[in-house]
Amino acid sequence: MIRAEHIVKSFDGRVVLKDISATFATGKTNLIIGQSGSGKTVLLKSLVGLHAIDSGQIYYDDVCYTSLSFTERKAIRQQIGMIFQGGALLDSSTVEENVRLPLDLFTNQSSKEKRDRVNFCLQRVNLKDVNDLYPAELSGGMIKRVAIARAIVMNPKYLFCDEPNSGLDPMTSVVIDNLIKEITEEYNITTIINTHDMNSVLEIGEHVIFIYKGEKWWEGNKHDILNSDNRELNEFVFASTMAKRAKACSGLHISETGR
User: Fold this and answer.
1) 3-class DSSP state for residue 163?
2) 123 lies in a domain?
3) N or C, which end of the chain has less CB nearby within 10 Å?
4) CATH at 59
5) What range(s) does the ABC transporter domain occupy (predicted)?
6) How would you classify residue 155: left for phi > 0, otherwise alpha for psi between -120 and 50, otherwise beta?
7) Is 8 helix (H, G, I), strand (E, B) or coil?
8) What gap in Å lies between CA 85 and CA 71, rounded to an integer?
9) How far is Cα 177 from Cα 106, in angstroms, rounded to an integer?
10) Alpha-carbon gap, residue 167 to 170, rounded angstroms
11) For residue 235, what are the domain limits?
12) Contacts by 246-249 with C-beta closer than 8 Å and gap 24+?
């Protein structure tokens, strides 16, 4: 579990997060949604410790993360997996080297132990015979799956995903969504996903927080969201759905004209 209490964050005197409190349950997919500039990415980065907050507290289970020193935070950081928006793979490293990187940095495992763990994680995300390939040789969906394998290689208790479906086609997005959900449940991870994809919300949104102008404006699940009378949330859902349809139609048009 991760708990945020009265989080405030500002940049150059401009308040971006305004007194946000929320609890993110273990074993569930927790989604943060909102318009561009709403503060959802800042909230995610504050929770993971990439931004120092102005006030408030962040708890990892029963440990107050914000009160820990830089050195004391190391133990918790080793229990965190992170999936970045573009995958963030090292272009000059093979798939195996990318997935193995956290093991090289934070463990004293033997080469065989590392290789076995890498292979296990790649198999878990349904990738095989890709160990010696480089990122440039992978599709967008494969890159995201390698990023997931790297994120879980240390068997994390906490998983943060920043726009995991960015740049993917709808079918691949569903595959990535379901994979994240399966891993969350299977390993009982506290997973927090920052997304603007309404398909993801309706597919795996067990706990959803809507951020509006830096405030927690609405909270519920994928079923509640369709019956909400929150005007700003409904406008966001409508705009996101229309944008998704327009993108899909645009892709279909390009496909047809390219035949």
Assistant:
1) coil
2) no
3) C
4) 3.40.50.300
5) 2-238
6) left
7) strand
8) 27
9) 28
10) 10
11) 2-79+156-257
12) 248/170
What span, in angstroms and rounded, lies between the C-alpha atoms of 146 and 125? 8
Q: Is residue 59 part of a domain?
A: yes
Domain contains 40:
yes
User: Which residues is 153 bridged to in the sheet?
Assistant: none
CA atoms of 63 and 22, how far apart (whole Å): 16
Q: What is the full per-residue pLDDT of the chain (259 aa) written as tens digits? A: 999 999 999 999 999 999 999 999 999 999 999 988 899 999 999 999 999 999 999 999 999 999 999 889 988 999 999 998 888 999 999 999 999 999 999 999 999 999 999 999 999 999 999 999 999 999 999 999 999 999 999 999 999 999 998 888 889 999 999 999 999 999 999 999 999 888 899 999 999 999 999 999 999 999 999 889 999 999 988 887 766 655 556 554 544 445 4
Asked if residue 202 belongs to a domain, the reply is yes
Question: How deeply is 245 buried, as exposed, middle or buried, from its count of CB atoms within 10 A (0-12, 13-18, 19+)?
Answer: exposed
Contact 191, 28 (CB under 8 A): yes
Taking the model in full, what pTM does it have? 0.89
HSE-CB for 258 with a 13 A CA cutoff: 6
Show Cβ contacts of residue 84 under 8 Å, excluding neighbours closer than 6 positions: 147, 162
Q: In the prediction, which pLDDT does 170 show?
A: 87
Q: Cα–Cα distance between 19 and 4 in angstroms, integer? A: 10
3-state DSSP call for residue 240?
Answer: helix
